[in-house]
Structure formats: structure tokens, C-alpha cells
């Protein structure tokens, strides 16, 4: 019985930290196209993203927790988007907003990346062209629930190792055939 209680007490600070992190998610914006207008509308008084602690849209990735990729990602912007993602402090999350960010949308050509998940790991996909601000608020609430369950410390390192092992087992992008192949 003492072992169970000591494990519960050891997990208590982690749960408090997860709860605090989930209440103030600061986004860094990658407003690349028309979905960015809907993302900006989310901060307006009608939708009021401030009630969820996310009103501070950061221009510096070092102060952000979540990247909101809204709009089509060109190959030229893909390297910049990856640099911004790499500069964000851990733990970090990504929300792909709109059909173009999630799958390239109607732009199936050489200039557009067919999904931002080819550049950064995506946690939540928002469908639509463009998705409504209410959908972005719902995604932030889903991300908040995910953060509350997210492990920290050595538990997080173990989860990362398992995720990396699963990613190495997955098929490479070179093996996957696109629509134009």
C-alpha cells in the first residue's frame, strides 16, 4: 500500500503542472493564407479566445507552446516553418488549420507541400475551407485535454522514445506514391 501512495504523491506535482500548462496555451502563428483570417477572428470579441488563456499570439517562437499552421504551405515556407518549430521550447504542439495545411487542399502542384505533417509533427487537424473560429476554439479545448494527460520528466522521455520507434517503423515518404506519380 505504501508503494501505491508514494507513486500517487510523486505524480501529484506532474498533474498540477499539466493542469497549469493546459490553462495558458500561447500560440505562435503561421498565418500563410486565407485560414489566417479565421484564426485572427478567433481573437476578436465575438469569439474571445482570451477566455481560454490563448489571447497572446506570440511572434517569438521561444515564448509559444502551440503552432497554428493556417493555410497552404509552400516549399519555400516549409523550411521557415520548420525553423520556427525547432526554436519553440519543449513541450510543443501543432494544430493544422484548414484543408490546405492538412493535405494541400486543391493545390496539388509542385509549389505546395501536400500537408504540413511532412514538415512538422501535427497533433490536431482542423478540416474545412476555411474552418470556422469555433472549430479552432474546439481544437484548443481538445489540446488542453491532451496536455492534461501529457507525461513530464522521465515519463515524457519514455513516451518520446516509443513515438520515435513507431515513426521509424512507418513507411518513408519516398515509398509513398502521390496522386501525380
Automatic annotation (TrEMBL):
Catalyzed chemical reaction(s): a quinone + NADH + 5 H(+)(in) = a quinol + NAD(+) + 4 H(+)(out)
One MF term in the entry's GO annotations: NADH dehydrogenase (quinone) (non-electrogenic) activity
Cofactor(s) of this protein: [4Fe-4S] cluster
Amino acids binding [4Fe-4S] cluster: 34-35, 100, 129
EC code(s) of this entry: 7.1.1.-
Keywords recorded for this protein, A-Z: 4Fe-4S, Cell membrane, Iron, Iron-sulfur, Membrane, Metal-binding, NAD, Oxidoreductase, Quinone, Translocase, Transport
Membrane topology: Peripheral membrane protein
Domain NADH:ubiquinone oxidoreductase-like 20kDa subunit, residue spans: 34-142
Main location per the UniProt record: membrane
Cofactor: how bound: Binds 1 [4Fe-4S] cluster.
UniProt cross-references to Gene3D superfamilies, sorted A to Z: 3.40.50.12280
UniProt key word 4Fe-4S: yes
Tagged with keyword NAD: yes
GO cellular component terms, semicolon-separated: plasma membrane; respiratory chain complex I
UniProt-listed GO biological process terms: aerobic respiration; electron transport coupled proton transport
Subcellular locations according to the entry: Cell membrane
Protein function: NDH-1 shuttles electrons from NADH, via FMN and iron-sulfur (Fe-S) centers, to quinones in the respiratory chain. The immediate electron acceptor for the enzyme in this species is believed to be a menaquinone. Couples the redox reaction to proton translocation (for every two electrons transferred, four hydrogen ions are translocated across the cytoplasmic membrane), and thus conserves the redox energy in a proton gradient.
Subunit structure: NDH-1 is composed of 14 different subunits. Subunits NuoB, C, D, E, F, and G constitute the peripheral sector of the complex.
Family as reported in the entry's similarity comment: Belongs to the complex I 20 kDa subunit family.
HAMAP family registered for this protein in UniProt: NDH1_NuoB (MF_01356)
Protein name: NADH-quinone oxidoreductase subunit B
Amino acid at each position: 500500500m505504501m508503494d501505491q501512495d508514494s507513486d500517487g504523491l510523486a505524480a501529484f506535482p506532474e498533474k498540477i503542472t499539466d493542469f497549469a500548462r493546459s490553462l495558458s496555451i500561447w500560440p505562435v502563428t503561421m498565418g500563410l493564407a486565407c485560414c489566417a483570417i479565421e484564426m485572427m477572428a478567433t481573437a476578436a470579441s465575438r469569439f474571445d479566445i482570451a477566455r481560454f488563456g490563448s489571447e497572446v499570439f506570440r511572434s517569438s517562437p521561444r515564448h509559444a507552446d502551440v503552432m497554428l499552421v493556417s493555410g497552404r504551405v509552400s516549399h519555400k515556407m516549409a523550411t521557415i516553418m520548420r525553423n520556427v518549430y525547432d526554436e519553440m521550447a519543449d513541450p510543443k504542439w501543432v494544430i493544422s488549420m484548414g484543408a490546405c495545411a492538412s493535405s494541400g487542399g486543391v493545390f496539388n502542384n509542385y509549389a505546395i507541400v501536400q500537408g504540413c505533417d511532412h514538415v512538422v509533427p501535427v497533433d490536431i487537424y482542423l478540416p474545412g475551407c476555411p474552418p470556422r473560429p469555433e472549430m479552432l476554439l474546439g481544437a484548443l479545448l481538445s489540446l488542453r485535454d491532451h496536455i492534461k494527460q501529457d507525461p513530464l520528466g522521465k515519463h515524457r522521455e519514455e513516451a518520446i522514445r516509443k513515438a520515435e520507434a513507431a515513426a521509424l517503423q512507418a513507411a518513408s515518404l519516398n515509398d509513398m506514391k502521390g496522386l501525380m506519380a
